[in-house]
Amino acid sequence: MAVHIRLARHGSTKRPFYRVVVTDHRSSRDGRFIERIGTFDPNAANGLNLDLARVAHWTSVGAQLSATVSRLLKNAAKAVQA
Fold it and tell me: Which positions ≥6 away from 19 have C-beta within 8 Å?
C-alpha cells in the first residue's frame, strides 16, 4: 500500500480550508484517510498547523509527501529560521 501525505479540501466556495492527511494514494482527494496530522488555511497569516512528530513518523515508515505539502514544509522551515 502506497501511503501519501497530502491535502484534503474543505470549506465553502471561494473560502478554502485544507486538512493535511495521511492516505492511501488510491483514495479520492476528499475521501478516506488514515490519519489527520494538521491543517492549512491559505487565508490566514500563519495558516499551517502540523504535528511534526507524526509527519516524521509517517515519512520514516515510507509515506511520500505530495509536492504541495513538501513546499509548505520548506516554506515553514524558512519562516522559522528567519
Answer: 7, 8, 10, 36, 38, 39, 40
Strands 35-40 and 48-50: antiparallel
pTM (two decimals):
0.89
Contact yes or no for 51/37 (Cβ under 8 A): yes
What sign does the CA torsion over 7, 12, 14, 17 have?
negative
Torsion (CA) 80, 51, 36, 49 in degrees, nearest 10: -30
Divide the 82 residues of the chain into consecutive groups of 10 and give the mean pLDDT of each group.
92 94 90 94 90 94 95 89 78
CA-wise closest residue to 1 among 67, 63, 53, 70: 63
